[in-house]
Amino acid sequence: MRYILASASPRRKELLKKTGISFEIIPSSIEERITKTIPSEIVMELAEQKARAVYESLLSSGSASLIADVPESRLCGAEDGDLTVIGADTIVVYRGEILGKPADKSEAYDMLSLLSDRTHQVYTGVSLIIRKHGKISVRTFYEKTDVTFYPIHKDDLHIYIESGDPLDKAGAYGIQGDFAIHVKEIKGDYNNVVGLPIGRLYQELQQIIYS
Between helices 10-17 and 198-210, what is the axis angle to 10°? Predict the structure, then answer.
């Protein structure tokens, strides 16, 4: 089985290494399109878009139609070999509002001020495009984690923001870095907040291997 991670995220790369599988990285470059409104459905939709885009890029133009709009098993040439493409997407949600990557330091400050002394949710969707024994299947799932911050002093916020760390992260923070000192409580999968629910993903990959 050939495994491909459809993400350039160094955090997802490090987490996927924990499975022990050998994998390649081919980032998705598609323009994301959100048609859903429920957070769990949004992350699954975006994860599947990424996985499909990378899978289709590996096919010849005449074979791109093998991935249908509705996931179901389809036949393809046996010579294509076994393959699993892993797409993922993470969003931070507070009271129904999606907090993406901040556009600048000012927006990062506003986001973190909003989350200070409150509980928010982190959703990660994962989509697997699997080609095994000449058949195509799609598995898509999500995990949700509740994260609560301590009250954060504005001076601490400015110090963290000046580090530059918040600017490439949904919700303007990375739980695995220096910001960890402000995390009061987590309910759910910690790795899901980092960007990939690796325990759940490993179980799904095991099912693929032994099915």
Answer: 50
Q: Name the one residue in this structure whose structure tokens are 């960007």.
A: 195
Residues 44, 151: Cα–Cα separation, whole Å = 32
Give the 3-state secondary structure of residue 184: strand
* pLDDT the model gives residue 50: 96
Give the pair of three-digit tokens for residue 205. Answer: 């990959």
Per-residue pLDDT band for 31 (boundaries 50, 70, 90) equals confident
> From CA 143, how far away is CA 147, in angstroms rounded?
13
pLDDT > 90: percent of the chain: 81
User: In angstroms, rounded to a whole number, what is the distance separating the alpha carbons of residues 12 and 28?
Assistant: 14
Query: 78, 77, 30: which is closest to 52 by C-alpha?
Result: 30
Which domains, from first to last, does the chain contain?
2-210 (3.90.950.10)
Residue 89 is a catalytic residue? yes
* Assigned token pair, 78: 């046996």
State the pLDDT confidence band at 134, using cuts at 50, 70 and 90.
confident
Determine contact, residues 129/138, Cβ cutoff 8 Å. Answer: yes
The upper half-sphere exposure of residue 130, i.e. CA atoms within 13 Å in the direction of its Cβ, equals 19
Given the residues 80, 89, 117, 155, the one annotated as active site? 89
